[in-house]
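User: Round two. Same drill as before: sequence, then structure, for each protein.

Assistant: Same drill it is. First protein:
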Amino acid sequence: MTDPGAAPVAAPVVKRPRGRTALLIAAAAVLGIAGGTAVGYDVQAGRAPTPLPALSQPDLAYPAKALPADKVPDPLPASQDRRLRTDGDLRKLLADRPAGWSDDPVGWGDDKAVPVFRDGWLGVDEYSSRAFKYKGPQYEYFLESGMRRIAGAAWKRGQYRTAETYLVQFRSGVVQEAQALAQGQRSYMPGTEFGAGNDGDPLKGSGNGRYYLYEVERKPGYLPTYQARAIVYRGDIMADIGIYDTVPISKKDIRTLAERQLERL
């Protein structure tokens, strides 16, 4: 028998499963997205295709009628038309021989009977063997990359100092080969096997040129060999300048030659 004065007993509380509401909401959202996507595809499929613009639209590039003679702009002067300058005699873009230097027909090397340049020109095979350690792969690369021509000059001062400049020009193409060659040459210069063993210094005013001083090379029975090099490119031409001597070469020496060549380009 229940005591009427006793306090009522609370009914047991049943806990709601956690996460059920969140799952229902997430499922509804997924269904809503899927349904909206399906409706969007259905609407798009029912629409007429939008025509693409014509590939050939000459009116965008050329006027319908030629300009009157008095309104035709004047051609660029030779001082501003770089293509006109580089399509001419490449040898004219070589920097003038500095004061105190004289022409050196054979340049730096062991074989003093073989001229470096023939009337200011150098063949691709000769350049590959003279300027690179692995002639074969380099020669093949030049042939495949559209090598056009190479002009150069060699000078000497004193008993052993020699300077050589190469202007390497490529044909027009998708790849800017002069830039690629200059970047490739600079990439190994910090190493000691083929390069100067340092990062060099930037050539002011060029935006891409650098000049380097090599570590001295010593061999028993021979005078020491000092070397400096500068690499810079302009358009389709790469300039490669080197100085060789048996006494130390200063940064100013190679920088001055490089700046003179850069001004001419």
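Second protein:
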Amino acid sequence: MSTQPVPDPLLIACALGIEHLALRMGDRGGADGPVTVLRTGMGPRAAERSVTRILADPVFAEAAVLATGFCAGLAPGMHPGDLVVAEETRDPRGAVPCVGTELLVKELARTLPGRTVHTGPLTGSDHVVRGHERADLLATGAIAVDMESAATLLSAVRGGVRPVAAVRVVVDAPEHELVRIGTVHGGISAFRVLRSVLPAFFEWHRNVLLPRR
């Protein structure tokens, strides 16, 4: 009697407790294979440590990795609740190309009709970016910045050949800077969007699974 192979796992990495809560509250139905939502802790070093540690487990040897959570938009006209699908993540150590960007854009538009989806490079920082730093990063070609995505994806590809992607929700932007995430409309809007993205992530995972060896 033949048995169907178990699909490779999907590892979804986020940094903050509020991001983890939003994802836990999302619709987990429709996943094609095991799904783990990892809270890495804030900052690139914490992300690198956490992702490297979990991918060392043979269970995750061929896991697809998707970095998500909140980000700061860099381009004028961005608004809290907008989505960013990275074409690549980058930091001073290099760039990591993302897989299935067009598919993610399509699925996010279907899952969250009416939400603006931006695509482009997502850059990493080791601190919260404000003021003139936004313009400096925008000049490099990046459209958004966060502290963990670049470290997460770099750690993922160092650990083996696997599909990787990054999807972030804009929580503040040049015209909408926030001081505290949970106390203003922008933070609430971003939380609701992040709570709704899992179906798009599962569809991406279903379509980019590597052939089993």
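Strands lie at 10-14, 35-39, 64-73, 83-91, 94-97, 117-124, 144-146, 164-172.

User: Perfect.
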